[in-house]
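A quick aside before the break. I want you to see a complete sequence-to-structure record at least once, exactly as it would be stored in a machine-readable document. Don't worry about memorizing anything.
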Amino acid sequence: KLIATASEGGSNVFKVDYFGRDAFLAQSPQLFKQMAIMADCPGVYEIGPVFRAENSQTHRHLTEFVGLDMEMRIGKHYHEVLKMIDRLMVYIFENLKKQCAREIEIVREQYPSEDIAYFTDKPNLIMDYKTGIDMLREDGVKNEEGNLFGYHEDLTTPAEKRLGQLVKEKYGTDFFILDKYPMAVRPFYTMPHGEDGYSRSYDIFLRGEEISSGAQRIHDPELLLQCAKEKDVDLTPIMAYVNSFKHGAWPHGGAGIGLERLVFLFLGVGNVKRVNMFPRDPKSFDGNNVRI
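That is the input. The structure line, written in C-alpha cells, reads:
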C-alpha cells in the first residue's frame, strides 16, 4: 500500500512521486493495524505485499514479499500476544504436516530436510534477550568487530544461527521467541520496558533464523511523540495516527511474519527465492536479469 511516511522509522523505503508529492511503498501495515485497534476492533490481521528497500543480498531477504500481520488488544500483559503467536504457529506447523504431507515429500526429494522440532503439549520457549546474549558470550561468539556481544547490541545473522543451534542443543526445539530486545534497535512505536534500555519487543525464530518481529506498541500519544523524536522520525504527515490514541487507547501488540521466510525455513530449502515464483531482490531489473 501507499503511505505518507516510513512506517518503520528508517530510510529503507521505496519513495514514489504521488502527483508531485512524496509517498512511500509500505514497509508494513503497522500504523493501520494500530488505528483499527483504536477503532474498537479487538483483533485484526492482514495478508498483503510488503516492500523493503534494503540492499541485502542474502539467502533470506527479498525487497517484496507477502506479510502476515496481526494485532490484538492486551488485557493484562503483553505476553498474551506471544501466547497467541505460539498457538498460531503451532497450528500452522501441524496443519501443514497434515494437509500438505505429499507436497512436503516431493520438495524433500530435491531438498532433503528434517521435520522442525517444536512443542505441542506445552508452551514453546520464550527467552529473554539477555539470556540469549549470555549463551552467545559463554560460547565465545564474537560480533563483527571481533568482540563478545554486548547486552544492548543487535544480533548478526551468524550470531542468530549459532543461538538457534545452542537453543536446539539445550532445549530441543527449532522454534522459540527471543523477548525484550534493546530499545535502540526497534522502531519508534515500540513500548519501552522499564528504565534499562530494553523494550517489550520480540523476534520469533525457526531453525536459527528470524521469521517474525513484534512488540507491544506505545498507546500513549505523548510517549509516542517523544520516542519518534528520539529516533528522528517526522510524524507530521501521519498525525491522524498519533491523534487516534488521544481519546482513550487500548494497550495492544502484534507481529509481522514474512510468509516466504516462514515457508523456506519450514521446508529447509536453503534460500527464500526458492519459495517465491517471481522473487524481487536488489539485483532485479538490472538490464541483464531475465526475470520479469
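Two observations worth writing down. The mean pLDDT is 93. Helices lie at 30-38, 79-99, 101-110, 129-139, 157-171, 221-230, 239-243, 259-267. We'll return to this after the break.
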